[in-house]
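The instructor's notes for this session suggest beginning with a concrete chain rather than abstract definitions. Hand out the sequence below and ask the class to guess, before any prediction is shown, which regions might be ordered.
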Amino acid sequence: MRKFLLMGLVAILLITIAACGGAAESPTATTAPTAAPPTQPPPTATSAAMTDGSGASASLQAYADEHAGGPGAIFVGDLAQLVGPAPDPALGDFDGNVTLDALQKHSYVFESAYYQTVLERANLENPTPLVSEGQTFEIQYACINRALLWCALKDKYMFPRVLERTNGQLRLVTTSFPELGIAGPDVHSLVADGTLAMADIAQYIAGAFPSIEIGSLFGIYPDLEYNYIAMANVTPELRDLAVESTEGGQYITLNWHSGNNVFFFSKEPLDTVEAWKNKKIRTPTAAMSSWLRGMEADPQFMAFTEVYTALERGVIDAAMTGADAAFGQRWYEVAEYMNGPVINWDNSAVVMNNEQWAKLPEDLQKILLEEAAINELEELRTATIQHEMGVLKNTDAGLEYREFSPEMQEYAFRNAVLGALMPGWVERVGGPEQPVISIFNEKVGAIVGVKINPDGTVVETPKTLPLDSFKAPQYAK
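After discussion, reveal the predicted structure:
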């Protein structure tokens, strides 16, 4: 493990954010390995690692004790064991750490049944032994952008671990949508035809698969806990949609887009309803465009790399993105205010082309899936502090934070979410009779108290799935 930590800490976080567009080269393998196992089954809550429903098995507890205090720490009942350095200083607080306060604010993550399923996939008590020898595989991973936190974590933590565990036989190399010159909506087909070996399937740029936007409906969540629980609950469907959209690609893992609440960066404050009217605001997504129209603003599709200059020159009045992404692009130099947030802890699936997957020997496949789950555990650990850091980084750089008032939040929910964003999504998926609408009502809407009626109208309803019902049995009250 010391080797893994050293490799993760040695790397330096590269901050480069650019626009999407282009195509990737297909990675190749040097041998013809064994056939692939079937696609992973949907994650389900498990108590396999629990002795009596109240504590971890002896071996899992021993693992937790051994890895406490830094990268690789897991939760088996004691949040204090997760306190410590992040895999790279840029993934922690200003001192590079994950703090107990941040972990306690996100205790629902670690007490959830979903967290237990990730622990199970990680196979920490019985890791797959390496059997293959003399193989050489280099697989290119197309992340949305290198600067984004989940992309950086894979570079600093997961990929060095995979290289180590496979004795150098499986090398994963990060690139990004901007570097490849690809547009987000076409990633599904590029993975399907093998142009991309492995890539992020982002929900918010769903392209020809608007159903996958079920995981990226901005503004329907009152806070991050509701957002996380709903996303965890609909994860099997998100996985299936990602696999379907890539024509049977292999689901590898889920990225949790920490620090990704939506903020609006502007030269004038957007803290009243009137302030939004007719403002030209950059948006990258159909869903957010609908939200902006509900606020009577004028959405402007614009490449990410064009935003800095557009804000500087007054071509647009404001631009929306996650706090960390804006900081990486130095928008604090051309804006005065950071307005928001619109709650958004969305995620994206990592999917590998099915032919590329089939070339890997079975032991390398299993090791890759285990390390992907271990990385997801670390992603959830570091997410706790990154949700704190997004605002702090930008205000420390000079922006004035204008937090939405309760009145603004209520107006946005009723007019931008219920009145525009949700009806727009229903229309994009093909109408309220589509299967994904039932999935939304049953697995997301029942948690947040939003329902799509058979006639396509969207209304508030009682919350019928309480948050506590998603806790792992040993943590349920």
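Then share the key points. The two ends are 35 Å apart (CA to CA). The longest strand covers residues 137-143.
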